[in-house]
Amino acid sequence: MDQKRSTLSLFEDNDLATELRLGLPGTDDQPEIKSSLSSNKRSSSEMGSNICIDENESRLVPPAKEQIVGWPPVRSYRKNIFLLKRTESETGSGMYVKVSMDGAPYLRKLDLKMYTSYEELMKALQEMFKCIIGLYFEREGDNGSQHALSYEDKEGDWMLVGDVPWDIFMSSCKRLRIMKSCEVKGLGDSL
Amino acid sequence: MFPEEVLEHVFSFLTSHTDRNSVSLVCKTWYEMERWCRKRVFIGNCYAVNPKVIIKRFPEVKGVELKGKPHFADFNLVPEGWGGFVWPWVVEFAKGYPWLEEIRLKRMVVSDECLEIVAKSFSKFRVLVLESCDGFSTDGLASIASHCRNLRVLDLRECEVEELSGHWLSHFPDSFTSLEVLNIACLGSEVSFSALERLVARSPKLKTLRLNRTVPLEKLSTLLQRAPQLIDFGTGSYSAEIRSDVYSSLKDAFSSCKNLKSLSGFWDVTPAYLPVVHSVCSQLTSLNLSYASTQSPELTKIRLVVLDCIEDTGLNTVSMTCKDLRELVVFPSEPFVGDAEVQLTEQGLVSVSQGCSKLQSVLYFCRQMSNSALISISKNRPNLTCFRLCIIEPTVPDYLTLEPLDVGFGSIVENCKQLTRLSMSGLLTDRVFEYIGTHAKNLDMLSIAFAGDSDLGLHHVLSGCDSLRKLEIRDCPFGDKALLANASKLEKMRSLWMSSCLVSFGACKLLGQKMPGLNVEVIDERENLNSLPEYAPVE
Q1: Which of B484, B488, B499 sits opposite A21 (nearest CB)?
Q2: What's the rounded Cα separation, in Å, for the pair B400 and B373?
C-alpha cells in the first residue's frame, strides 16, 4: 500500500498546466458519473446508460459474451477457416454445451466428448472458471465448496450434476450452470 | 532562397508524407509551394480532418489514402455501425478532385453508392485498394468494372463483400486491357471463370493475380499460361484428385512464370501438388502458406507466412535455409483450443532469430514463452523493428520460472533499439512498462492486453515513449490518473484505444473539455462496457 501511495504522488509532481484532476481542489477524487454522453459525431442508441464506477473496484469485468471477445487476436475469416476444417475432419461432431457461472458475465463452451467421467469434467470446469465445485453426491460429505454444478436436460429441467451415470448425463445435457451452493436447495428435489 | 522552380523540382523527390509535412512547416513560402505540388495525401485517421480542408489545401492531389476504424476493430472490439464511412469523403472528392486517380482505404465502410460515385466521377481513375473494408457488394464492383476504363489496380484485401453474383467481372468491357493488379482472394463465392480467363488473356500488363478459393486447381494452368509475366500469384483451392495430366500441365505452367516472386493462396492443400511450385521456389521472396495446414517445403524467401503446423522442426529448417528472411508470420491453426497438438513452442522463434540474420519483423502465435527465450531473441536480433508476440492464453507466465515476462520483453526493448512496433502478451506487471518507457524511444505503436498492475504502468509508457503515436490497450487496470497526467502527450499521438480498463466517464469528459485538440469518444454498450478511443489531430 505504501508503495502505491508514493508512486501515485508522481502524478502530483507533474506540470500544473497539463495536470487535470476531477472535482474541486481539496476534495477527494470521486469519479461519480450520472449523465449520459452525447456524441457530436455519431448517434448511438446505446449511449444512454448511467455508468457508475467505483474507484476502489479492482476486479476487471471481462467484456465477453462467450469466449473472451477478440482474443486471441486473429481475424474472423481465419477463425472460420479452421473451424470449418476441424468439423470436416472430426468423426462425428463435438458435443458443445454452454457453461455459465453465476456472477460471471461471460459464457464458455465445452465439448463434453472430451471427457470420460465427472471427475475430468469437474477438473476442466474448475480450471476454466477458477473455482471449487462440489458434486451432488459429495454434498452429503460437505467438502465446503461454494459452488455447485447443475445442468439443463433435454426436457428443459435443471438438475444437479452427478446424479446419473456419466453416459446418460452426456447424452441428455444441453447446458451447464455453475451456481452458488446456497441456491441449490430444492433443485435436486425436482426429479 | 531558391527560385520556385528549383524548390518544386526538389520537392518532387519527396514522397514520404512525414517529409512533406515537415517541409511545409519551414516557412510560408515552402508551405505554399508544397501544398500545390503534393500529389498524394495520407490521412491516418479519417476523423482527424474535414475533407473540404484537405481539398482546399491540396488542390492537385491525384491519390488519396484514408484509414478509418481503429486496429482493434479487426478483433470485434468495435461495435457495428461505429463509423469509418468513406461516403462524405467520396462526395467531396467528386466535386474537388475530378482528376483523382487513386483511392486506398483501410478499415472503412464503403457502400455500393460510394463505388458508383467513384466509378462515374473520375475519368482518369486507375487504382482502387480496399483493405479490411466492408459495406459493399458485387454490384459496387460491377460499377467499377463497367465505368473505369483506365483501371490498373483492383485490390480487395481481406474485405467483407456481399456477394450477390459472380458476373460482376463480365462488366469489364472487351476493350479493357489495362489491368495490372487483380486481387479477389477474399471473395467466398464463385466468379465467372470464363470472364476471368478472358480478362486475364487480354491483360498483358497483369502483374498480380490473386484468385479466390473457388477457383479449382485444375484451372490454374489455364490461367497461368495466359499470364506468364505474373510477379505475384495467389492460387485458389489447391486441392484436387491426383492426376498426372493435371500435375504436369501445372508444373509446366509454373515453370514458364520466370518473374514470379510471390506466392499465396493454397487453400485446402493436397500435398502431392506442392512440388510443382519448386521450380519457382528459388526466385520467391514471399510465400504465404497460412491457409495450408501442412508443413511447408524448404524455400528461400524474404517473407514467410505460415501456420503453426510448421512446428519447431520446420522453423529450424527455415533458420538454416532461409538466410534472407526478413519477416516471419506464424498464425495459430487452432486458436481456440487450449492444448496444442502442434509442436510449436518458443524454440521455433529462437531458432529463426539465430539463423536468419536479416530478420526484422515477427508476428508469432504460440502457447508458451520464457524470459530466457526472449532475452536470446533480443540478443540474436537487435535489428528487429517489429515484434508481435501473442501467447494464446492470456496472463500466462514464463513457463520455466513461473515469473512474469517483464524481463524478457524488457530485454527486447533494450536491445532492439530500432523497434517501432511491439505487441505483448503473457503475464506482465508494471515493471515491463517501466522498461518500455525507459528504452523504447523509437516505438511508434504499442499493443497491450491483460497486463500491468496500476496507473503507473500507463504513466511509464505515455511519459517515456517519445515516438509513440498509436497505443491500443484492452483489459488492463489503467484508470484516470495516468491518462489525465499525460494529457498533453495525447495531442502528439494519432490514436489511443482503451477498452475494459478502469477509465471513468468523468475523466473522459474532462479530457474532452480541457484538450480541445482531441476527439474523445466513449462507447458504452448495454453490458456497461467502458471503452475509450481517442484521436489526436494529424498535424
Answers
A1: B484
A2: 10
Q: If residue A77 lies in a helix (H) or strand (E), which one and from where to where?
A: helix A76-89
A53 in B contact zone (CB under 8 Å): yes
Contact A14 B526 (CB under 8 A): no
Size of interface A-B (CB pairs under 8 A): 148
Radius of gyration of chain A (CA): 24
C-beta of residue B182 within 8 angstroms of C-beta of residue B197: no
Question: Which candidate, A160, A119, A170, places its Cα nearest to that of A140?
Answer: A160
Pairing of strands B232-234, B181-183: unpaired
Between these two residues, A6 and B154, which has the higher pLDDT value? B154
- B-chain CB neighbours of A34 within 8 Å are none
pTM of the model: 0.70
How high is the pLDDT of residue B354? 97
Amino acid A11: pLDDT: 41
pLDDT at B414: 98
Q: How far is residue B175 from each of residues B149, B203, B207, measured CA to CA in Å? A: 9, 10, 19
Helix (H) or strand (E) holding A160: strand A158-160
Tell me: the pLDDT tens digits for B223-276? 999 999 999 999 998 888 888 899 999 999 999 999 999 999 988 888 788 888
pLDDT of residue B166: 87
Coil, strand or helix at B531? strand
pLDDT tens-digit series, residues A101-123: 887 766 777 888 888 888 888 88
Touching check for A19 and chain B: CB below 8 Å?
yes
SS3 state at B213: coil
Residue type, A77: Y
Nearest of B305, B322, B324 to residue B363 by alpha carbon: B305
Let me know: does B42 contact B62? Beta carbons within 8 Å: no
**pLDDT tens-digit series, residues B427-443:** 999 999 999 999 999 99
Q: Count of CB atoms within 10 A of residue B486's CB?
A: 19
Cβ atoms of residues B477 and B456 within 8 Å: no
pLDDT in tens, B137-149: 999 999 999 999 9
Query: How much is the average pLDDT of A54-62?
Result: 35
Contacts 24+ apart (CB under 8 A), A125-131: A125/A99, A125/A149, A125/A176, A125/A178, A128/A99, A129/A99, A129/A101, A129/A104, A129/A178, A131/A101, A131/A178
Q: What is the ipTM of this complex?
A: 0.78
**Concatenated DSSP letters of B124-177:** T--EEEEES-EEEEHHHHHHHHHH-TT--EEEEES-EEE---SGGGGGS-TT--
CA-to-CA separations, A154 to A171, A179, A190, B492, in angstroms, rounded: 9, 20, 14, 59
From A19, A51, A85, residue closest to B293, measured CB to CB: A85
